[in-house]
Amino acid sequence: MAEENNTTESTTVKQQELEAAGKTKETEDPRQFLIMAGENDNYEDKLSLYDKALNLDPMYFDAWLQKGFVLDRLGKSEEALACYNRALEIDPDHLGIRCLKGFAYSNLKDFEKAIECYDEVLKVNSNDVFSWYQKGSVLENLGRYGEAMESYDRALEIDPTDVLIREKKLRLLGLIYKKGTLTDSPDSGFN
What is the rounded (10 degree) CA torsion for 70, 73, 79, 83? Predict the structure, then answer.
């Protein structure tokens, strides 16, 4: 019983010391910074909170992931890629990071590397609708309309209810008919 009282007193004293120093127990936990970032709408503030979390725990996967996502949203895709690569060092099998890297490469107009990222995911999970959709978008940006159409079709085979993919495919069909060409399509002889 005396030992239990000493532990309680020690915890109380430590909490009082932290409060006196302007810190609370919660701010010593890097997860709290991610919670605060999730409640914040300002990207610069979010980055500051992610950095605080990473200062406490440099191996905090979710902080690297979220920091990369925000950096990419801010148009800092090179920095985002560095965060995603750091996250992959922590969890090399995480497929979501590879998708996000594909998105960052696409923002940088490095479409071939973006396709490589989506293909890495599709090798492991051939039913990843997001990767098929994004790969189609990248192929479309490269003017490889037939391959883009195949990617959209594959995504719709997996999820026929996805309205966004359907709209993207219809828009691409309109573009193809307007240009009058689908040069890389297997049925290009019909044009």
Answer: 40
